[in-house]
Structure formats: C-alpha cells, structure tokens
Design the sequence.
C-alpha cells in the first residue's frame, strides 16, 4: 500500500470521526476531567479534602500502593501526620525549591505523599550508601492500624531493613471515638479488594483497577463539591437578614482565651505559630478512654512482637510536641503513655528515641501545637540520621541495611 493511499484512508477516518457525536462527548468529558482534577483544586484545596473524607480507600491510598506494588524500600517511616507533614514540608523546600508552606499542608497533599527525600539524603550520606525511604504517615492513625499495615505488608513479601515508628500520645488515647476495628485504616482494609497473591501480574492488575476506580471516585466527589458552594451561597443569600438578627440576639459572652499573650518568634520565613489546633486537642483530650488506651498499648506490644518474629528491626521515636499541647494531657496519662511505650520497647530490645525530651525544638519549629514545619523537620531528620548509624553499629540487624537495588 502506497504512502498516498495510507494518507488518504487516514484522512477519511479523521473526517468520519470529526462528525461523530461520541468523539465530542469524549473530548468534553476529558476536558471537564482536566479542569476539575488539575485546575479547580488549586483554587480550593478543601475540595480535595472532601474527596478524601468521602471514602476510606482514597485516604489510605499510599498504604495500598506500598503493599500492592513491587516497591520495596529499605527504610519505612510509620506514624501519623506528625511524620507525614515534616516529610512533605522538608521535601518541598529541599527538592523543589518552592516557597514554603505557611500552614499545615492540606490533608490530600500529605495523605498521598509517600516520599521522604530530605531524610533519605541525610541517611544515605551518613551510611555511605544509597538507602531508599518511604513515608507512610497518615492523619489520625493509631497503634492498632500499624499492626494491620505491617501484617499485610509482610504477607505481600515486604520486609524492610528498618522500620522507624514515630509515636505520640494521640495514637494511644485519641481515636475520634472509634473502636480499634472501626478506624479509617481498619474499615478500608476490610473493604479493599486485595490481590490474590503478591505476584507481578496480580499486583499490576490491582494497580490498574485502583487507578481507574479511584480516579472516577474523586471526579464524582469533585463534581458534587461544585454543587455544594453554590447551594450554600443561595441559601445564605436568601436568609442573610434573618441569620444576622438571630446572631445578634443569641451572641454569647466572649470567653477568655487561655492562649492570649502566647507569642512565637517569627521563623526564617516570617511565620508565627498561632496554635490553631489547640481547641481541637483540648476537646479530644478532655476525656481519655482508659479501655481504648490499654487496647492501643496492647496492639503496640503485638506489633513489636510481629517485628521480632519476622526479624524486622524497629526504632521507636517519641515525636516532639509543644508544651501547650502536652499541657492539655492529664499529667498521669502522659506519664503512663511514656513509661509504657518505653518499657514495652525495652522488653523487645528495641531502641527508643525520645525527641520530645529534646531542647532543640522551639515554638517556631511548629506549624501549630503538634506538626513540625520544615525547620523543625530538618532538626528531627538530622537527629535521626545521626543516631541511626550509631544504632546500626551497635545492633547487627539494623546494620543489615542493604544497598539500594530498586
């Protein structure tokens, strides 16, 4: 067949396609998807949070991606948003050299971000060989969730050379009122369609299924988010005068702010810490469920048992908090938390690093009362990168950090 005939047939096909209503519908949907998925969320990041909050599986996406893939990093960072936020913040300024976050990154960003490049660079330099690191930190995660993640990862042949497990009181005493079997991780693990095995074909099929279903789940939620602001706008506009009168009549007396007068020196980027999360923690720390507390300590023990049984080296890191957050916790509760975690780690011959006992962190190293910003994150990761090689020299299992083969 000559080149001219091929060109003629191609032109004929293109002409027929140009008259196809199906093609126009497809192009319209594709353009809508691009706008909603790429441009609109930049203008309103809360829409992405709503997309996450509507389903447990997208929220836990990076956990599934790690377990159901061939990715096998040597160092796994486990923990809550307390490790996820500084990982993202440090990498933003270190890797991409963009302007820093001026508040805690939105939930969609740090719930999906699984790299930890700044710490990876420091640790690789200290060990004298490339070491791959993954950050599995998720908001609101608790000790029982870590047991589920590690157990499933081992079932899929994931055996890290080291697990750095970052802990804080909230992971033992605060669980949004949910039982250990009703956390977001717990519910997502129950409903997720796990591959039949850890073979390459099964994992590839799972990745394709995951990308397809989650993409349209998010698109559906984003379309729903478009309707909500408009509906709220017209509702508020129709009842604005009525609401205004009610607000004036029912306005309660102003309460004294217990944090009034608390100031933070500006950090290198001119930010001040306003402790915006204090009210949330005050409400959730007000009543500690002792039964839940004991259950989470039990799962902490079970997780360390699992690590020892499978020869997975672990380092426990007690994350730094501001004194304003720590003061919200009943003193006896905090003492029980610290003593229990320290004792359980010691019984399992697992190193325990108490970064909350460090005088290196100031209020300007935090976004709020709990989350480290990039300056605090760099202090944390620098301290860990200096301590871990010493542990590797002292403990043969940790010294087994292998060269990067990925």
Sequence:
């Amino acid at each position: 067949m000559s080149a001219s005939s091929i060109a003629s047939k191609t032109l004929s096909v293109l002409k027929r396609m140009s008259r196809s209503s199906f093609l126009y519908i497809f192009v319209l949907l594709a353009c809508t998807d691009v706008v909603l998925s790429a441009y609109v969320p930049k203008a309103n990041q809360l829409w992405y949070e709503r997309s996450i909050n509507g389903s447990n599986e997208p929220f836990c996406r990076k956990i599934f991606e790690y377990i159901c893939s061939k990715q096998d990093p040597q160092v796994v960072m486990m923990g809550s948003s307390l490790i996820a936020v500084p990982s993202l913040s440090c990498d933003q300024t270190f890797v991409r050299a963009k302007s820093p976050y001026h508040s805690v990154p939105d939930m969609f960003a740090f719930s999906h971000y699984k790299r930890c490049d700044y710490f990876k660079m420091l640790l690789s330099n200290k060990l004298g060989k490339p070491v791959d690191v993954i950050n599995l930190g998720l908001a609101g995660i608790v000790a029982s969730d870590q047991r589920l993640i590690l157990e499933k990862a081992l079932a899929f042949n994931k055996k890290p050379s080291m697990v750095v497990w970052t802990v804080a009181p909230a992971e033992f005493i605060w669980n949004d009122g949910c039982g250990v079997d009703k956390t977001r991780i717990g519910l997502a693990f129950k409903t997720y369609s796990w591959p039949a095995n850890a073979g390459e074909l099964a994992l590839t099929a799972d990745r394709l299924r995951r990308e397809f279903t989650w993409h349209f789940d998010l698109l559906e939620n984003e379309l729903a988010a478009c309707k909500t602001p408009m509906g709220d706008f017209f509702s508020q506009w129709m009842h604005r005068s009525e609401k205004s009168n009610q607000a004036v009549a029912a306005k309660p007396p102003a309460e004294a702010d217990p944090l009034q007068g608390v100031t933070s020196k500006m950090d290198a980027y001119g930010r001040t810490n306003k402790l915006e999360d204090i009210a949330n923690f005050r409400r959730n720390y007000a009543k500690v469920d002792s039964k839940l507390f004991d259950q989470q300590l039990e799962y902490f023990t079970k997780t360390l048992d699992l690590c020892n049984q499978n020869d997975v080296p672990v380092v426990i890191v007690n994350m730094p908090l501001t004194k304003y957050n720590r003061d919200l916790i009943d003193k006896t509760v905090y003492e029980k938390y610290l003593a229990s975690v320290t004792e359980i780690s010691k019984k399992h011959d697992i190193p325990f690093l108490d970064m909350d006992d460090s005088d290196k962190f100031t209020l300007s190293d935090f976004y709020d009362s709990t989350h480290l910003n990039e300056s605090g994150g760099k202090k944390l990761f620098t301290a860990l990168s200096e301590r871990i090689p010493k542990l590797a020299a002292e403990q043969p299992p940790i010294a087994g950090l292998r060269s990067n083969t990925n």
User: Anything to note?
Assistant: The domain at 73-195+276-399 is CATH 3.40.50.1110 (Rossmann fold).
